[in-house]
Amino acid sequence: MNSIYFSSTLMWSASLPELFQAARTLGARGIEFWAQQFESRDYCAEECLRLIEEYQIEAFVHSKTWDLNFASMNRCIREASIREIKSSIDLAGRLHAPEITVHPPRESLCGELPLYRELAYRGLEELLLYARGKNVDVSLEVMEKIPKEMMTSRRQVQELTRDLYPEFFYTVDVAHCDDAAEVKDFLLKLPRISKLHISNRRGAKYHTPLSDGDFSFPELWPVLQGSHLPMVVEGLDRSKEYTMLYENMNYIQTIKRRV
Q1: Residue range 153-203, pLDDT digits in tens
Q2: What is the Cα 83 distance to its own chain's centre?
Q3: pLDDT (0 to 100) of residue 257
Q4: Of 76, 94, 77, which is closest to residue 39 (Cα–Cα)?
Q5: For residue 80, how many other CB atoms are within 10 A of its CB?
Q6: Could you tell me which of 10, 19, 3, 20 has the C-alpha nearest to residue 210?
Q7: Which residues of 87-110 are buried (b: 16+ CB within 10 A; e: fewer)?
Q8: Which of 130, 137, 168, 198 has a beta carbon 3.0–4.6 Å from 99's, enabling a disulfide?
Q9: SS3 letters across the chain
Q10: How far is residue 192's CA from residue 69's CA, in Å, rounded to a whole number?
Q11: Percentage of residues of the chain with pLDDT beyond 90
Q12: Cα–Cα–Cα angle for 64, 107, 207, rounded to 5 degrees
């Protein structure tokens, strides 16, 4: 049985108690907390730990990603990005989260891929070592196929991580895949997948509601369910109604009744 989590970004404006109350109401096994939201909303780690215990909710942490690039040609940007991701790892350690989701870095300019791969490798090596010291696993997310992204396929995962390939875990995001066949390929052939991010996409618009997009989740669900992996429902909702979260979770229940 797959555990269903949801991303805290689906309740961007919520307080910590509201997040946990929603998880209980919706029957979610856990929450993936975005570190940037944790900081921006001024959440308290001690309060979060208390609520984790009270509600018996599991937690993942998603590293800060926005405006960061630890393979940037700009040394100051690289250093700042590493610091911010390390602070996210610190948060995961404080919350006793088993792993942190990290986005791989990108090219600054297309055309010098060997340079950026080398910078990426050095950063990955440093982050892996730091996370080990905090007893936190690192799960690298396979990204969408847009310019400058360096890790969008199984082959690129191996090219970027080199000898560190078996040391990381990996997060497969359904919305980043081209089609159901690619989702199946990842599940069959990419080792050490630790979880799935689930949302839909409509062409180049990513992370639409599960019911709205190019993927037919009723058809895909048996494949996802067969993976026995935790699934994190993703999206961004800055309103205070949290409509996307409730619609997604209700839609999952509808799919489960069909299959």
Answers
A1: 999 999 999 999 999 999 999 999 999 999 999 999 999 999 999 999 999
A2: 19
A3: 87
A4: 94
A5: 16
A6: 10
A7: ebbbbbbebebbbbbbbbbbbbee
A8: 137
A9: CCCEEEEHHHHCCCCHHHHHHHHHHHCCCEEEEEHHHHHHCCCCHHHHHHHHHHHCCEEEEECCCCCCCCCCCCHHHHHHHHHHHHHHHHHHHHCCCCEEEECCCECCCCCCHHHHHHHHHHHHHHHHHHHHHCCCEEEEECCCCCCCECCCCHHHHHHHHHHHHHHCEEEEEHHHCCCHHHHHHHHHHCCCEEEEEECEEECCEEEECCCCCCCCHHHHHHHHHHCCCCEEECCCCCCCCCHHHHHHHHHHHHHHHHC
A10: 24
A11: 97
A12: 50
- Say what the pTM is: 0.97
